[in-house]
Amino acid sequence: MGSSTWVVAAVQTRSDANRDRNVEVTSALVERAAHAGATYVQVPELVTYLGPPRGYGEVAEPIAGPTVEHFAALARRLGVTVHLGSVLERSTTPGRVHNTSVVIGPDGALLATYRKVHLFDIAVPGQVEFRESDVIAPGSQLVTVDVGPARLGLSICFDVRFPELYRALALAGATALAVPAAFSAVTGPAHWATLVRARAIENHAFVVAAAQAGTTPEGVATNGDSMIVGPWGEIVARATGDEPQVLVASLDLDEVRRRREQIAVLALRRPDVYARTVQRGGSSDAVRASMVAETTNAVTSSASDH
Fold first, then answer.
1. Does domain 5-262 have CATH number 3.40.1280.10?
2. Any alpha helices (H) in the chain, and if so which ranges?
3. Domain spans, the chain
4. Is there a catalytic annotation at residue 129?
5. CB 110: neighbour CB atoms within 10 A?
6. Which of 45, 61, 89, 132 is catalytic?
7. Which of the following is catalytic: 61, 89, 132, 157?
8. Which of 95, 271, 298, 302 has its CA 20 to 30 A from that of 253?
9. pLDDT of 80-126, one tens digit each?
10. 89 catalytic, yes or no?
11. C-alpha separations of 136 from 4, 58, 245 in Å
12. How does DSSP assign 166-184, residue by residue?
């Protein structure tokens, strides 16, 4: 394989409130991905605990805790990069923890952490109401990390609704974007795939999106539909059904460069214009003067026709 080739895996899981079982099942899926040839293996958001929020504080750990230590040993044994989509990290904010993504290198070293910036506060009457900000303290730093031939931009789940985050990552050099998720089963069928593909298309970047699937015994319902998307918006690999599974794809990072040369969305940006105050039609003297000028011209043209 060429130096621009990157073999990745998106692991779909059905985590629940049983932390030990989640770690065991996820570890087996990571091993399966490594044996299938993946050198980068991404697992979903809240991979070790997808239970009632009241349990977050009890299962939260420091980054240098038993969960990361376990997966660091696994990464080292398999010789692959393991990306924990997110784990619950202890915070200094009373009553809240961080929802934190952790990237571990093939030598078991910690490569990067990212704390979820945009929190899932939603109210769809009669369908889903949740305030992640009641139990999660938000992050305040965007993060990229070099993984093999890719520069990977980190994000988590609800972040996918905020395109400005991904544009910032792309401008910082990201050629691939990570969107590990536990996306709601209520909004997912309408929004998930469209949002993931949009983030790929608008930045001409690969997107790896490992997702939780199915409904837990505690009633947490997630959308599933894990996928790997190319920089032209094409779906390279996609989960079928809600069962745990491993998606593996060989990606050519040169395609990012080719697509960005064909439609140079990053180079053609107009930040000088975006920084200006948005003008509201009909509210400025300039708009009124323009309308007067257009009316005068129209009257003059009409008179000359007679």
1. no
2. 19-35, 56-59, 66-78, 163-171, 188-203, 254-262, 271-274, 285-304
3. 5-262, 276-304
4. no
5. 13
6. 45
7. 157
8. 271
9. 999 999 999 999 999 999 999 999 999 999 999 999 999 998 888 88
10. no
11. 37, 13, 28
12. HHHHHHTT-SEEE--B--B
